[in-house]
């Protein structure tokens, strides 16, 4: 090993040069990148978490929770836009941290992103399983419940008996299917994603259009229910707790940044894709939350399929089936983009030697990091098949918020350390905007339960152990190319 320290950082010039050396195909335009963002953002948040957060934390003021989450993401999104245009590589926050805080922190954030993307994909896959079981039941096809739930998950059958889950086969199936598609090619996967995004946008807009005529304004009163005496249960603390919960719904615009190396014109396509998808989805979230809480009293929304419950109030049976199809489509695109993003981060980390080199191999004919994609798919499928959704969901938001803090800090740092480098897109109001992004992210982290913090700490300790056992000794930056 050389005498370089663990906080040795990559230069911006070297990172930009590396972006032109690799063979990932540049197939994505601004529209496809925006669709990737929408595809990942509109999913579990709008179809599941809206009802949960309204019923348990914020009431009708869940609309404000989405506004808070959207504002926090806007500040962070502006920072992502600058960095993705400046450093058009596939590593996202991992690469940005490598250029600012150095290798050890880059590894920490790369390990943290596994928590966000892999666990996030597993969470959504479990939600997908619930919706497909419900939809198939409408057509007279019944999947045995013990084969659509994680082990030790108990639930009651219609006859009153109790059954325990064995394995969630539908969740594993959808992950493996999408993994095979992503290995087959980015362009083809993006085309399918664009189609599915159009379908679920149509369903969401239809829910708003049909539902608004059935809204009962009385359901919006009180708009902010009185606090129960417990921190985070209604009142203004409930609004903030709700924002922390539904923040999962905004995960996705950051995954867009992992597509930078495959963008045709990253300097303009990336800012359009990141900010465009974020604005569109925030507006739709607030509108759906308003219609849903106007259709159904917030106390009745703590169910797995709150949008379907809202459709029941409208009274259109055929529309209920359409909503479930839209939910399935929405959840499918989320899994697709999260699997895509995770493999690209693995690809970049392996290029730097911190993971085995095989994960940076690009398939000669398909032009995709097939080995990295296959590993991620298998791991996510196993986790989704065997882990309850509540355990998975709690681990995702804090990992994302932690990454957001570092991204905002990277913008401030690089403005000073590499002021001379041309920036195709510049975050306005630096340092105020990045500081606000950091502040909002930290604030939302504070409102997460302590168990979530403990899981994050344990996860990071495991990551550090892996770094010192393998990555430190194979780092290209610390040891030179011979280490690989």
Automatic annotation (TrEMBL):
Localization, per the record, is: Membrane
Please tell me whether the keyword Transmembrane helix is annotated for this protein: yes
List, alphabetically, the Gene3D superfamilies matched: Amino acid/polyamine transporter I
Its membrane topology is listed as: Multi-pass membrane protein
List membrane-spanning regions: 28-49, 61-83, 95-114, 121-143, 163-183, 195-214, 234-253, 274-296, 316-341, 372-389, 395-415, 427-447, 453-470
**One Pfam family cited in the UniProt record for this chain:** AA_permease_2
Keywords annotated in UniProt: Membrane, Transmembrane, Transmembrane helix, Transport
Record carries keyword Zinc: no
Per the record, its GO cellular-component terms are:
membrane
- Where is this protein chiefly located? membrane
Q: Name one GO molecular function term.
A: amino acid transmembrane transporter activity
Q: What is this protein called?
A: Amino acid permease
Q: Which organism is it from?
A: Bradyrhizobium macuxiense
């Amino acid at each position: 090993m050389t005498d370089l320290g663990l906080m040795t950082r990559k230069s911006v010039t070297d990172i930009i040069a590396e972006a032109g050396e690799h063979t990932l195909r540049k197939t994505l335009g601004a529209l496809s990148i925006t669709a990737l963002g929408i595809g990942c953002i509109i999913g579990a948040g709008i179809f599941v978490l809206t009802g949960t957060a309204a019923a348990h934390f914020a009431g009708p003021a869940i609309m404000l929770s989405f506004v808070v989450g959207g504002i926090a993401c806007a500040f962070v999104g502006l920072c992502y836009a600058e960095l993705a245009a400046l450093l058009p590589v596939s590593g996202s926050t991992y690469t940005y941290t490598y250029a600012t805080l150095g290798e050890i922190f880059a590894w920490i954030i790369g390990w943290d992103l596994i928590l966000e993307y892999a666990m996030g994909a597993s969470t959504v896959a479990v939600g997908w399983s619930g919706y497909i079981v419900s939809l198939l039941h409408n057509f007279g096809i019944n999947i045995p419940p013990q084969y659509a739930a994680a082990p030790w998950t108990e639930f009651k059958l219609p006859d009153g008996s109790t059954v325990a889950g064995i394995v969630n086969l539908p969740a594993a199936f959808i992950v493996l299917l999408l993994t095979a598609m992503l290995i087959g090619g980015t362009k083809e996967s993006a085309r399918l994603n664009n189609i599915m995004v159009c379908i679920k946008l149509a369903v969401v807009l239809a829910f708003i259009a049909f539902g608004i005529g059935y809204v009962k304004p009385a359901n919006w009163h009180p708009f902010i229910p009185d606090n129960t005496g417990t921190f985070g249960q209604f009142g203004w603390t409930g609004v903030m707790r709700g924002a922390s919960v539904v923040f999962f719904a905004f995960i996705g615009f950051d995954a867009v940044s992992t597509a930078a190396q495959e963008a045709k014109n990253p300097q303009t396509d990336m800012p359009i894709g990141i900010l465009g998808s974020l604005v569109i989805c925030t507006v739709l979230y607030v509108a759906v939350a308003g219609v849903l809480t106007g259709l159904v009293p917030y106390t009745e929304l703590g169910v797995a399929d709150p949008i379907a419950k809202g459709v029941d109030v409208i009274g259109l049976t055929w529309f209920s089936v359409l909503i479930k199809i839209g939910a399935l489509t929405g959840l499918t695109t989320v899994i697709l983009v999260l699997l895509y993003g995770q493999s690209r981060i693995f690809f970049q980390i392996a290029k730097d030697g911190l993971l085995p080199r095989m994960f940076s191999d690009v398939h000669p004919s398909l032009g995709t990091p097939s080995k990295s994609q296959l590993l991620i798919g298998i791991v996510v499928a196993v986790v989704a098949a065997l882990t309850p959704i509540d355990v998975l969901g709690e681990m995702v938001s804090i990992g994302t918020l932690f990454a957001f803090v570092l991204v905002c800090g990277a913008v401030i740092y690089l403005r000073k350390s590499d002021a001379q480098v041309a920036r195709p897109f510049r975050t306005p109001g630096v340092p105020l905007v990045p500081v606000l992004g950091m502040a909002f992210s930290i604030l939302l982290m504070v409102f997460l339960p302590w168990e979530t913090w403990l899981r994050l700490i344990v996860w990071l300790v495991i990551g550090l152990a892996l770094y010192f056992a393998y990555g430190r000794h194979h780092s290209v930056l610390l040891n030179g190319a011979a280490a690989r």
